[in-house]
Amino acid sequence: MESRDIILIGAPVDSGKRRRGCLMGPDAYRVAGLAEALSSLGHRVVDRGNVAPDPVDVAEDPRLFALGETVGWTVSLMRAAEEAAPQGMPIFLGGDHALSMGSVAGVAAHAQRVGRPLFLLWLDAHSDFHTLASTETGNLHGVSVAYLAGRDGFSMFPAMPAPIPGKNICMIGLRSVDPAERAALAETETHLADMRHIDEVGIRTPLADFLARVDAANGLLHVSLDVDFLDPGIAPAVGTTSPGGATLREAHLVMEMLCDSGLVSSLDLVELNPFLDERGRTAGVMVDLTASLLGRRIFDRPTRSLA
Q1: Cα–Cα–Cα angle for 238, 256, 281, nearest 5°?
Q2: 200 given a catalytic annotation
Q3: pLDDT (tens digit per residue) in 55-87
Q4: What is 5-299's CATH superfamily?
Q5: 228 a catalytic residue
Q6: Per-domain residue ranges for the chain?
Q7: Residue 97: active-site member
Q8: What is the reported pTM?
């Protein structure tokens, strides 16, 4: 794999849900050696530190948790993403999944400017396709894709520069989708691969099909990797655990296929809650997966002879 300019951007977003702890995620990735792992693969890595939310004037809604703070994060991360995207491959260190409203929106603005379509690969147990009106919990990490896809009801957020059509979105690993989200998704062309589909045909098939579409369209590809894409048995540090997730081998296969495609232009690492981790176990897994996406192969790892 060719050397790339990697831009690490800390996004300690902890406003997308009520359970706290994701604000410690960016530093957990740093302690787990993300920059060092990517540098060892020959990439040029710069860490721009942590972004902070912009102050915004938004009327709070008692139904929605931390609306103003989440809007502020969206504004600041959109600006950071739009600035970084022309300079290399930004990796957003989260932080809960509400951060994607800013990171992906900023990348979408860049894609529109360079005249290329943006595609979104959502690796998550949840579809996050609620609107502000349909969410029952009021947790805004569950509305991210709805905003990015241009669904109605987000007037208090910055305008999505170029809403992503359903045909350009692929969700893999789904196993917890609410009825309102299911009904809304049925009206779109979003590509959906839940865990039953993966059990039946494997994880390679839906991903290969989607990557072929990205390549044919000369698209830019943003990958949003949620810790709960993985089975909690291997990645416990997440507040929204859902059993039956991707295995470690399936997750590495996804990352290696993404690497082979050469299509990934930006990445989110989200929902890591170090407070729930076991001696940095989950952070280490996420660093290893990122390294796989950026070129590490099994033969890069020294092994001890059994002789």
Answers
A1: 30
A2: no
A3: 999 999 999 999 999 999 999 999 999 999 999
A4: Ureohydrolase domain (3.40.800.10)
A5: yes
A6: 5-299
A7: yes
A8: 0.95
